[in-house]
Design a protein that fits this description.
By secondary structure, the protein is an all-alpha fold. Helices cover 68% and strands 0% of the residues. The protein has five helices and no strands. The mean pLDDT is 77.
């Protein structure tokens, strides 16, 4: 279920600038001055994806939305791979902030659309693949099919 919450948090981070939530508590300059560029980027990555994912996970557990998703579907694998790539790319960008001059960070920002856009599409597709309609209640035995000829005795 956390995989689904993280995927939705990643899609929310596209539209809503979640690092602006930090501006309620502190300014970016104070954060960078206190923690340095690596620590500031790490906190921004954590707020962008994981704080929202933990909040969504709690909401999903309260509303019992885990029954709406089929976790054995192929969409779960697609979702997991896309989540790992997005968070891994964010971690590489955080590590790139350690390199002085900013050249590596600039190069990664140029590659971001080629990496992140397919992952965002994969997340949307994975969520659609995992979403399932509620199954209607079954009547009778689970794997009982009617006999082809009703006049014959059951097999």
């Amino acid at each position: 279920m956390f995989n689904v919450a993280l995927a939705i948090a990643i899609l929310v981070a596209i539209v809503v600038p979640t690092p602006r939530l930090l501006s309620i508590v502190t300014t970016p300059n104070d954060l960078q001055r206190t923690l340095g560029p690596f620590g500031a980027q790490l906190i921004i990555l954590f707020v962008r994806y994981f704080v929202v994912a933990f909040l969504l996970y709690g909401i999903f557990r309260i509303l019992r939305l885990d029954r709406k998703f089929n976790f054995n579907a192929n969409g779960a694998t697609v979702l997991l791979v896309a989540n790992v790539v997005v968070v891994g790319f964010g971690a590489v960008r955080v590590l790139a902030s350690l390199v002085e001059g900013g050249g590596l960070g600039f190069g990664l920002s140029q590659l971001a659309m080629y990496v992140l856009f397919p992952c965002w599409l994969a997340i949307a597709i994975g969520l659609l693949m995992m979403w399932q309609k509620p199954l209607p209640p079954s009547h009778g035995a689970p794997n009982s099919a009617p006999h082809p000829d009703p006049k014959l005795p059951p097999i």
